[in-house]
Amino acid sequence: MKTSWKGSISFGMVYFPVNVYTATTGAEEVKFHYLHKKCNTRVRYKKYCEICKEDVAQEDLVRGYEYEKDRYILITDEDYEKLPINSKKTISIMNFVDKDQVDPIYLDKAYYISPSNFNASKAFELFRRAMQESGKVGIAKITLSSNEYVSLIRPYEKGGLLLNLLYYANEIRSTENITELNYNVDIHENEMKMATSLIANMTSEFNIGEYRNEYQEALKKLIQAKIEGKEVVSPPEAQNNIIDLLEALKASVEATKVTTKADKPKAGKKTKAV
Questions:
Q1: Within a domain: residue 273?
Q2: How far is CA 112 from the centre of its chain?
Q3: Residue 195 belongs to what H/E stretch?
Q4: 3-class state of residue 81 by DSSP
Q5: Confidence class of residue 197 from pLDDT cuts 50, 70 and 90?
Q6: Residues in a beta bridge with 110
Q7: 8 A C-beta contact, residue 47 and residue 62
Q8: How far apart are CA 246 and CA 193, in angstroms?
Q9: What tens digit of pLDDT does each residue of 96-110 get?
Q10: Which residue, 94, 97, 77, is CA-closest to 86?
């Protein structure tokens, strides 16, 4: 696996080299191209210089910051290297927090961390195991793709570490401007009992492998049908006949009871391992 970042982790006075790898691939989705409606020719996007009247290749581009209208200063790769930022090469642990203290809304892209060589393995494993036994996660900074991020580091499977980039506080939008949340309703005791019973009946162990991207699957079938010249049909829309909330909850609880009983083995009998 190709490394995304190489450097070291600084843990108090302990210092050991690590490799960082991208942990996710992004959403799997069907890719489309834009075509010219008139002739169905693919539309191309070109970088064009209005002064030189010519197309510009990627290697001929430089970064410019507009500090006044139409006036720029150039920032080169050498300028980036001169930035006095420790997190370019070192993941310095700033502090530790309880593993459940970080709200999931702050979690962004995930990366795997491994020791970069055999000699770093002991310090790496000590760091990982100490966090695991204490129930803590590390908060650190790392520079990736010309930007510095706050990150969360925690023990992960097979002796590794997982690093999540975190959004900064000013990057999280407040819910204060969502006017629909300014509601005031009365919840009846029976409605609450039914709702909690429904949750209990629908509770199971989390297994991400059970879920599929049905939208993309349906889209691929639609595309294949178009290729084969078949008629594309749509299922009828579900009818919403729910009138009474309590009755709907009761019906849902009863329906999930049937499903739960069918899935669970009978009491007093052991299930045979397959």
A1: no
A2: 14
A3: helix 189-201
A4: helix
A5: very high
A6: 164
A7: no
A8: 10
A9: 999 899 999 999 999
A10: 94
